[in-house]
Amino acid sequence: MAVHKIAVIGGDGIGPEVIDQAVRAAEVAARKHDGAELKWNHLPWSTAYYKQHGRMLPEDGWEQLKPYDAILFGAVGDPSVPDKITVHELLLPMRRKFDQYVNLRPAYLFAGVPCPLVGKKPGEIDMLVYRENTEGEYAPVGGNLYPGTENQIAIQTGVFTWKGCERILRAAFEAAQKRPRKKLTSITKSNAQVYGLGLWDDVFNTVRKDYPDVDSSSLLVDAAAMDFVRKPEVFDVVVASNLFGDILTDLSAAVTGSIGLASSANINPTKKFPSMFEPVHGSAPDIAGQGKANPLAAVLSAALMLDHLGLAKSAAAVRKAVATVLAEGRVKTPDLAGTHTTTDMGNAVVEAVG
Ligand code: ATP
Ligand code: MG
Prior knowledge:
The protein contains 11 helices and 12 strands. By secondary structure, the protein is of the alpha/beta class. It folds into 2 domains: about 1-105 and about 265-354, Isopropylmalate Dehydrogenase (3-Layer(aba) Sandwich); about 125-255, Isopropylmalate Dehydrogenase. The strands form 2 sheets. The protein has a 10-stranded mixed β-sheet, with helices on both faces. α6 (about 195-205) links the parallel β8 and β9 (about 215-220). α1 (about 15-35) packs parallel to α11. The chain starts with a strand and ends with a helix. Bound molecules: adenosine-5'-triphosphate (ATP) and magnesium ion. Magnesium ion binds near residues 77 and 282. One of its GO terms (molecular function) is magnesium ion binding. It catalyses: (R)-malate + NAD(+) = pyruvate + CO2 + NADH. This is D-malate dehydrogenase (decarboxylating). InterPro entries: ICDH/IPMDH (IPR050501), IsoCit/isopropylmalate_DH_CS (IPR019818), IsoPropMal-DH-like_dom (IPR024084), TTC_DH (IPR011829).
């Protein structure tokens, strides 16, 4: 039986609660549908760990993580400690240290989930957003002149490299090729940001020649924001820079129902380093410890992990189980206007998988 080693970092707030349910669903699916065993190792790295040890993870923490096949991550963040420590010591460095340059965020409108847009049918919104995860507008390059004075000048530099643009664009094109609609939209703003997004467009126009079977086009980010609301059904694979991808995926999550359903993957496609799978939402301290969190974002993130591990049948089984539970509508957490608990929802998914 194939064995896959997974590091589990539940983290803070609702993180551990939702991750527990994701672990259960993935384990049942892997065994039943792919005959694979998932070996979990729970790591206690969190705000509580920080308060005890003065750091979010041990000194050799990154080395400890390297041998794993994947990392399943809940959320970090606690009102008692600044994000500058929690998020900036654990979550953000992981994406860079492990070169997880693909941030994949699917948006799918499930049956049984209320959509804020009028007249959308289940399955009609079905897109994969590929967000660049290591450079662009979020490059830590810049500084201040005359800080603390009325003359202060802040400079924030976007860093776009040919290599960085090419690898995210190629990952998106590869994904588009495997989808029935074979459609790709590249998000840009090169009319205003002529250097960075100008390079992005140049690389797009070069790379697209290698994928003549994909119907690809370029769209300005402001027009894209409008179309994500007006006609999200036209999008299939969308590829965007770090900042634009960040903003557009909050929008795509909103138009497909609840933040409690939005999943994500931070992938190193070379498999040189482990990839990390996490719900889009944060630690939600306002509902932590009350059994109110919807675990489906974490469960769907675990399905992305199963895909990455090559367990495609298990991944499909988890997604189908989630779709069935939502469509039946018997079990609903408060974010879906129900009264069921995190565990109730986890139980329903495990039952549907099995
Ligand atoms: P971060 O800064 O870590 O991205 P945040 O503080 O902006 O996170 P969240 O922690 O995601 O935001 O919480 C935003 C809101 O969404 C809160 O009201 C929270 O209760 C709700 N929420 C987040 N995740 C879930 C979930 N899985 N189920 C139900 N409600 C959720
Ligand atoms: Mg927060």
